[in-house]
Amino acid sequence: EAQVTQNPRYLITVTGKKLTVTCSQNMNHEYMSWYRQDPGLGLRQIYYSMNVEVTDKGDVPEGYKVSRKEKRNFPLILESPSPNQTSLYFCAARTGLGEQFFGPGTRLTVL
Amino acid sequence: AQKVTQAQTEISVVEKEDVTLDCVYETRDTTYYLFWYKQPPSGELVFLIRRNSFDEQNEISGRYSWNFQKSTSSFNFTITASQVVDSAVYFCALTSDMRFGAGTRLTVKP
Questions:
Q1: Is A48 on the interface with B (CB under 8 A)?
Q2: Which of A8, A6, A43 is nearest to A25 (CA)?
Q3: Which site among A2, A13, A75, B36 is 20 to 30 Å from A97 CA-CA?
């Protein structure tokens, strides 16, 4: 079954404690993205990757890092989380025609 | 600038009513794709439709239909005879920089 997986699904942490949200896809798509979803703002792109070792900033990259060492994995790293990063995060893998397959989401709370 | 506007923040209808969700976009690209996604209360994002900029034919899929008008930069989504299961947040998106609208929350009451 074609899918995008994210872990963890829920996370409560404290300010400044580094965390990583993993994302993995089994569809062999080159293009992957991270989004955050906030009420009234829709989904905003944090970072995207067009292929292995190629990453670029989206609309809201501050406070986040990503890496793309292999095609299937695209982890999101928060080196020093802050309360304004409390959000619902989605990873997505994208086809060449732009259709995106989203992971189930990670709900992050930073206290 | 690339932009997607969903002016309707929330819509509430009674079951069996028809409802149209509006989407207006801005792009300088001549080739682009438009999408609609559904986010039910369970939270996952579900792909509904893709439309490319060269194809202005309307599309119908069961109770769902989409009206793409390049002249007005709109890509509206109509649900005919709405059902409670249609209750969700619906997002319109544009391939240019992968812009999403803010979403429209549709509530269908029994």
A1: yes
A2: A6
A3: A75
Sign of the alpha-carbon dihedral angle for A84, B2, B75, B53: negative
Q: Is A59 on the interface with B (CB under 8 A)?
A: yes
Please, which pLDDT band fits residue B60 given cuts at 50, 70 and 90? Answer: confident
Give B2 to chain A, closest Cα distance, Å: 12
Q: What is the pLDDT of residue B96?
A: 62
Q: How many helices (H) and strands (E) does chain B have?
A: 0, 12
Query: Which residues are CB-neighbours of A35 under 8 A, at least 6 positions away?
Result: A43, A44, A45, A46, A58, A89, A90, A91, A92, B100
Residue B70, classified by CB atoms within 10 Å of its CB into exposed (0-12), middle (13-18) or buried (19+), is exposed
- Per-residue model confidence as pLDDT tens digits over B15-59: 999 999 999 999 998 889 999 999 999 999 999 999 988 888 888
Do the chains contact at A43 and B97, CB–CB below 8 Å? no
Which residues on neighbouring strands pair with residue B50, listed in sequence order? Answer: B35
The residue type of A111 is L
CB-CB contact of B37 with B93 (8 Å) = yes
Q: Which pLDDT score is estimated for B97? A: 66
Say if the Cβ atoms of B43 and A104 lie within 8 Å.
Answer: yes
The answer to whether A60 and A36 are in contact (CB under 8 A) is yes
